[in-house]
UniProtKB/TrEMBL annotation:
Highest taxon of the lineage: Eukaryota
Species lineage: Eukaryota, Metazoa, Ecdysozoa, Nematoda, Chromadorea
Name of this chain's protein: K Homology domain-containing protein
InterPro entries in UniProt: BBP-like (IPR045071), KH_1_KHDC4/BBP-like (IPR055256), KH_dom (IPR004087), KH_dom_type_1_sf (IPR036612), STAR_dimer (IPR032377)
Gene3D superfamilies for the chain: 1.20.5.4010, K Homology domain, type 1
Length: 320
């Protein structure tokens, strides 16, 4: 038998003059951050370095190189299976170090021993969108391609979805489905739906932990100091292949244009003298002027003089 416990929460607090609210969305739908506002100068993508638990430093540039190599390996599917696996594991490791969101509320909660039967428990956290109508709560909880929500699910052991009005990206499709079967949640206000399938005593701990993390995640930070948003934008740029490190050695704006001249109107090309008929025992002749290169086996002064005159006539000839 499956027991369902439904609770409703409205999260609303004020700190530093900013109303705080929480929201989330089902990352099963494809969200591409189209609604994220453009970051200002202090939020632009910059080089980030983080240190892993084993003391190794990772950078965004290193992750960008790994993603590039991953695409190159995809050109040869099934040929380098072990290399693909190693690259994918390294990408996951570096990404977890660079873009790991801090949802922690101190030490990880200790789960008690299971008591009772496993059941499905649910919690609702309503999103106060009226206080922040222009804030993109859905994009913040999802992260680029659902990566933030996936991390939140892994840490809490709960399934997180968004339901209610405004939970779908396609507003026309939402209006078409309103009132239909299995779409009853569209009649409710925008809210976070948390599912936990566990024993009652363990589910209580997991749900409380998930609610706490969601509240902390969806606190609108002051403009220009949103570290989570900066990481999400950077990770999205890496996924789309549009990331450009700020510390580039050469800038296109600093490159001085170089004038190109036609080689036809400059010094004529050297003439290579054929060694046919040359005496292989004679020493090499010195180099002649006007870039006339003589054979190293020819030592005739008259012959070199004739070549020199031909070269001068060629240089003085008008160009057609």
């Amino acid at each position: 038998m499956v027991v369902q416990i439904n609770k409703k929460h409205e999260v609303k607090s004020v700190a530093n003059g900013i109303s705080r609210s929480s929201s989330c969305s089902s990352f099963e739908r494809d969200h591409d951050f189209a609604e994220l506002p453009t970051p200002n100068r202090s939020q632009r993508l910059s080089s980030v370095q983080s240190r892993s638990s084993n003391g190794r430093e990772y950078s965004v540039e290193y992750l960008a190189d790994l993603l590039k190599e991953q695409k190159q390996l995809q050109v040869f599917p099934g040929c380098f299976l072990n290399i693909e696996r190693l690259v994918n594991d390294e990408i996951a490791r570096v990404r977890s170090v660079l873009f790991q969101c801090d949802f922690s509320n101190g030490d990880k909660p200790k789960l008690p021993g299971p008591v009772g039967n496993v059941s499905l428990f649910t919690e609702k956290v309503y999103v106060p969108v009226k206080d922040h109508p222009d804030f993109n709560f859905v994009g913040r909880i999802l992260g680029p391609r659902g990566m933030t929500a996936k991390q939140l699910e892994q840490e809490t052991g709960c399934k997180i979805m968004v339901r209610g009005k405004g939970s779908m990206r396609d507003r026309k499709k939402e209006e078409m489905n309103r009132g239909r079967r299995n779409w009853e949640h569209l009649e409710d206000e925008l809210h976070v739906l948390i599912h936990c399938e566990e024993t009652p005593n363990r589910a209580k701990v997991k749900l409380q932990n998930a609610i706490f993390k969601i509240k902390n995640l969806l606190v609108p930070a002051p403009e220009g100091s949103d570290e989570l948003k900066r990481k999400q934008l950077m990770e999205l740029a890496l996924m789309n292949g549009t990331y450009r490190p700020t510390s580039q050695r050469y800038s296109p704006q600093l490159v001085t244009p170089v004038s190109l001249f036609s080689p036809v109107r400059t010094t004529p090309a050297p003439i290579i003298v054929s060694p046919s008929g040359a005496n292989p025992l004679s020493p090499a002749a010195p180099s002649t002027p006007n870039q006339v290169v003589s054979s190293p086996f020819w030592n005739s002064v008259d012959y070199n003089m004739n070549l020199l005159m031909n070269q001068l006539n060629y240089a003085a000839a008008p160009l057609n």
